[in-house]
Write a structure and sequence with these properties.
The protein is an all-beta fold. The chain is built from no helices and six strands. A six-stranded antiparallel sheet has the order 1-2-3-4-5-6, with no helix packed on it.
Length: 66
């Protein structure tokens, strides 16, 4: 079984720094019902919203690396 590493730090209220083995990301928002916006060091941008019930919504956009 491979070893994994993932750690999340709360920097400010509503702002998290997420670190894993290959990259890091900043997540903002995500209050009780608001959207969360995540930007990764690899260029990935994700917007997600928790909807009531079994519904959830996530949109991911990956930018091309230069």
């Amino acid at each position: 079984m491979p070893l994994t590493f993932r750690k999340s730090f709360r920097i400010l209220p509503g702002v998290r720094l997420n670190i894993n083995r290959r990259s890091w990301s900043i997540t903002t928002g995500g209050g009780s019902h608001g959207p969360r916006h995540t930007r990764s060091s690899t260029g990935r941008r994700t917007t997600s919203v928790d909807l009531p019930g079994p519904f959830g919504w996530r949109h991911t956009r990956t930018a091309k690396r230069r």
